[in-house]
Specification:
143 residues; 6-stranded antiparallel sheet; two-stranded antiparallel ribbon; globular
Length: 143
């Protein structure tokens, strides 16, 4: 199409957005996307949850973990986001060792030094393993 001699092109962009309702569990935890707290876990250089997701926002961390098909996501050291399908290589720790406030959401706890609050993710979306949002290049193994 041409308007006043200028070529004009149109495109249709389709975006799928999932909306989650924040709920409070029976333990008083305020869930963001349906995740369930699994406890405080110790971590070390050979990561318990081996995939780093490049975000420091709890909701985005959980959403990316679900989109990536991971069973667990962990918040560590004030906001680092880690994901994987098995947890507990170094054992559980008392909840008191995972009390560092999240940088982006001060009312939530984001682990501590070599400690992470781990969450069981809700069922992954069908066809998960890939994400088409702005975070699509964030997955990577840490060895």
């Amino acid at each position: 199409m041409s308007i006043s001699g200028i070529e004009v092109y149109t495109a249709t962009v389709t975006e799928t957005t999932t909306h989650h309702v924040t709920e409070e569990t029976s333990t008083g935890y305020r869930t963001l996307i349906g995740e369930q707290p699994d406890g405080c876990y110790k971590d070390a250089g050979k990561r318990d949850l081996p995939t780093r997701l490049r975000t420091d926002e709890p909701r985005t961390c959980f959403e990316l973990a679900v989109k990536g098909g991971y069973k667990y996501a962990g918040l560590q050291y004030g906001g680092e986001c880690w994901a994987g399908n098995d947890v507990g290589m170094y054992g559980k720790r008392p909840d008191g060792e995972c009390q560092m406030p999240c940088r982006k959401e001060r009312g939530r706890k984001c682990g501590g030094g070599w400690r992470q609050n781990v969450y069981k993710m809700p069922s992954s979306e069908p066809g998960s393993g890939k994400t088409n949002d702005k975070h699509k290049l964030i997955f990577g193994k840490v060895h």
